[in-house]
Design a protein that fits this description.
The chain is of the alpha+beta class and 494 residues long. The chain is built from 16 helices and 12 strands. Helices cover 41% and strands 16% of the residues.
C-alpha cells in the first residue's frame, strides 16, 4: 500500500511539473494571431413585393419558403418623438397597452387566442415608430393577422390596464434609476438633444408618468394609428398574393381620420466644442462608476451611414479598440464598447464602460483617446478587415429568422431607404477603406466636441477628472431632473 501511494505521488508531481512547464512556455510565447477571415460570400436575399392599399397602407411581403413560419409587423411611423414635452412616455405607454384588451377581447382572451395557435403577439414603441408584431406557423397566419388588426384598430385602453402599465413602468424606472449605467443613458439624451424631442426618456420620467391620462393615450392613438401612417411587413412562408389578400381582408377597411396627418419637423442640436459638457453625477452609494462619451451623429439616410457603422465596429465589440484598451490590456472594466444609433433625425454616438470608482477619470481619458486615435492614428487593413467581417457576421445572423428578416426590411421601409439596399449591404461594407473610417471619425466623432458623463461616487474620481477637464459640472443624483435640459431640479420644485 505504501509503495502504491509513493508511486501515485511521484506520478502526480511529474504531471504537475509538465503542466507548469507547458504553462510557462505558453505564457512566454507570443500571442497566437488568429487567421484572417475569409472573403465574404455574395448572397441574394428574398425579393420583396409591395402594394399600397386604397386607404394608404403600404404592404410589403418577403417570401421565404424554407421553413413554415411567418412573421408580420405593423409599423406606425410615429414613436416617442411625438410625445408632448410634459408627457414623456405617452407613446410608449400607448403602444404597450395595445395588447391589453380591445373592444371585444380582454387582455387574457388575447393572450389565450394567440397561445392557442402557437404564436406570439407583442407591441411597443421606439423613437421613430410604434409596432405590433406576430410570429406563427404559416397555416395560422390569417388568425394571427386578425388578432394583430384588432389590437391595432380597437384597443380598449381600460382604466385598470392603464394603471397596471403605469405601475409597471414606474417600478421599472425606479429600478433603472438605481444603477449608474441607466442614469448615464438618461442623462446622455438630455446632454445631446437638450429640449428636442429625442431628449426625454422614451419610457417617461417619475414625474411625467403619473400625469398621463386616458385622454392623452386615446389622442395619441387617434392621431397616429392610421393606415396612411403605417407599413405592414410580412415575411416567411407566404406568397405576395396571399399576403396582399390577408392585408386587404383585415386592414383594407381601416379608415383614415378626416384630417391629414401633420408633418413633424425636428431640429436636433449639433455637437460642437463650445457646447460639450463634462458632467459628473455624484451617486455616493454607487459601487461602480459608468463612463459615457456621447455626441450627436447621423440619420439613417446619411450618405455616411456605411462609413459610420464600419467606424463604430472598429471601436466596439470584444476585439474592438475600446474593449481591447480598457478591458484586455488594463483590466479596468468587464467590457467597453460603442454604438451608433442612426434615426429619422440626427441620431447619436456613444462609447461606454463601467469601472471601479477610483478609475473613473482614467477610463474617461482612455475612451476619448481611442476616439481621437481613430481619426488621427493608423488603421491597417489587418485590423479593419476582421472588424468588417464581424459587422457582416452580425448582419447575416440577423437575417436567419423570419423575425430578423422582417425587422431588417421594416427598418428600411420606415426610413425611406430603397428595399434593394439589403442586397448591397455586404458590398457597401466591403467598399469602406481606412481613409473613409478616418474621415468619418474626424468629422463626425471629433473627441473635442464629445461630451463626457461620469456617474458614480464622485469623491473617488473627481480630483483626477478635474485635472483633465477644469470645467467639470457636478450634479448630485438626488437633484437630477430628466424633464429639463439643464438636468437640475428647480429650487422649490417637487
Amino acid at each position: 500500500m505504501k509503495l502504491t501511494t509513493n508511486r501515485f505521488v511521484v506520478m502526480f508531481l511529474s504531471v504537475f511539473v509538465v503542466v507548469v512547464c507547458a504553462s510557462n512556455s505558453i505564457a512566454q510565447s507570443p500571442q497566437a494571431t488568429p487567421p484572417p477571415p475569409t472573403a465574404p460570400h455574395s448572397v441574394v436575399f428574398p425579393k420583396p413585393v409591395e402594394k399600397t392599399l386604397a386607404n394608404g397602407l403600404r404592404v410589403i411581403v418577403i417570401p421565404r419558403t424554407q421553413m413554415p413560419l411567418v412573421t408580420a409587423q405593423l409599423l406606425i411611423k410615429s414613436g416617442g418623438e411625438v410625445d408632448p414635452s410634459d408627457l414623456s412616455g405617452v407613446a410608449d405607454m400607448t403602444a404597450s397597452l395595445l395588447t391589453r384588451g380591445t373592444s371585444t377581447k380582454s387582455a387574457t382572451q388575447i393572450a389565450e387566442a394567440i397561445e392557442a395557435i402557437g404564436g406570439s403577439l407583442n407591441s411597443g414603441a421606439g423613437w421613430d415608430a410604434s409596432s405590433i408584431s406576430t410570429s406563427v406557423m404559416s397555416p395560422r397566419i390569417g388568425q394571427a393577422l386578425e388578432l394583430l388588426a384588432d389590437v391595432a384598430r380597437n384597443p380598449a385602453f381600460k382604466d385598470e390596464e392603464i394603471e397596471r402599465v403605469r405601475r409597471q413602468s414606474l417600478n421599472g424606472l425606479r429600478g433603472a434609476l438605481a444603477t449608474p449605467g441607466s442614469i448615464a443613458r438618461f442623462v446622455a439624451a438630455r446632454v445631446i438633444y437638450r429640449d428636442a424631442p429625442y431628449g426625454h426618456p422614451l419610457s417617461g420620467t417619475p414625474e411625467s408618468l403619473p400625469r398621463i391620462k386616458r385622454d392623452d393615450i386615446t389622442k395619441i392613438h387617434a392621431t397616429y394609428f392610421r393606415p396612411d401612417n403605417a407599413i405592414l411587413v410580412i415575411g416567411g412562408d407566404i406568397t405576395g398574393e396571399n399576403g396582399f389578400a390577408l392585408a386587404q381582408k383585415y386592414l383594407g377597411d381601416w379608415q383614415n381620420p378626416p384630417n391629414a396627418l401633420a408633418k413633424l419637423q425636428i431640429t436636433t442640436p449639433e455637437s460642437e466644442p463650445g457646447n460639450r459638457r463634462i458632467l459628473v453625477i455624484d451617486k455616493p452609494e454607487a459601487g461602480q462608476t459608468t463612463v459615457l462619451a456621447v455626441r450627436s451623429a447621423i440619420n439613417r439616410n446619411s450618405p455616411d451611414y456605411f462609413r459610420g457603422i464600419v467606424a463604430n465596429s472598429v471601436l466596439s465589440g470584444y476585439s474592438g479598440r475600446l474593449n481591447w484598451e480598457i478591458r484586455v490590456k488594463r483590466g479596468l472594466s468587464y467590457g467597453a464598447g460603442s454604438s451608433l444609433d442612426a434615426r429619422r433625425w440626427a441620431g447619436s454616438f456613444s462609447a461606454s464602460a463601467q469601472t471601479k470608482n477610483e478609475s473613473g477619470a482614467e477610463v474617461a481619458s482612455l475612451t476619448l483617446s481611442e476616439i481621437s486615435k481613430l481619426a488621427n492614428g493608423e488603421l491597417l487593413d489587418t485590423e479593419l478587415t476582421p472588424r468588417k467581417a464581424s459587422l457582416l457576421g452580425g448582419f447575416a445572423r440577423s437575417m436567419e429568422t423570419t423575425g430578423g428578416l422582417v425587422g431588417q426590411f421594416a427598418s428600411l421601409a420606415l426610413y425611406g431607404v430603397p428595399l434593394d439596399e439589403i442586397n448591397r449591404y455586404v458590398a457597401n461594407v466591403q467598399a469602406i477603406k481606412s481613409a473613409d473610417v478616418k474621415s468619418f471619425a474626424a468629422t463626425r466623432l471629433n473627441a473635442d466636441s464629445t461630451s463626457v458623463i461620469v456617474v458614480g461616487d464622485a469623491k473617488k474620481f473627481l480630483p483626477d477628472l478635474q485635472k483633465q477637464f477644469p470645467q467639470v459640472e457636478v450634479i448630485p443624483a438626488s437633484d437630477l431632473d430628466f424633464n429639463s435640459a439643464s438636468l437640475k431640479k428647480t429650487v422649490g420644485k417637487n
